[in-house]
Amino acid sequence: MLGEGIIKGMAETARNFFGSFVSKERLITVEYPEQRIPTFENARVFPFLVYDGADWEAGLRCVACQICEKECPPKCIYIEKSKEKKPDYAGKLQIYPAKFDIDVSVCMSCQICVEVCPFEAIKMNTEFELATDDRFGGLLLDRQKLARSNEYYHSIHPTEAAEVDARLAEEKAKVEAKAKAAAEAAAAKAAAAAQAKPTDTASPKTDTPKSGTPQSGGEGA
Ligand code: SF4
Ligand code: SF4
Question: Strand, helix or coil at 61?
């Protein structure tokens, strides 16, 4: 029937309006901004950069591989690589983003940057109160404004963050086991090489001159 959807919608609105006087379940609006509905775990607004530890700059997981920059459909990520390296979460030396900006006035919240990042370094934030009268500078977020701790990530996406932590811990354990095996193999190789080498006691030096052999400096005495 033509207009059936409109009638159903109006009926639901009327049920909620009159029902809200007698039932709290029908009171489905809140007085924002004094009252707020908690955001859902799978809500997504704009991306943020995850860091581990207390120092946002040292703890950024991003290694400036620029995959997200290339894959971002509206090209609103701008990255400059560092000249030097710093250890990542697994202790491996990596370059880092000397510059990492996202223009959130262009970002379309597609989450592709999150999906392509191999380092679990960029995730979707749930913050939405970003209104500003500075159309350009105010919405171009640099790496400091984008940085959020792993604890914050856990607070907004607990299930996903726990999965990521488990995955990173597994990868770190693999890297450590590999490094340990390599160190043990190198130590075993060095020990084998030392054993194979002839010792000094096996071939004593003949410092004592044989009888009748002229010694240096003795000639002409
Ligand atoms: S969410 Fe989409 S549009 Fe926004 S920065 Fe990531 S890839 Fe680009
Ligand atoms: S956020 Fe991820 S994909 Fe983007 S540059 Fe950093 S490490 Fe690479």
Answer: coil
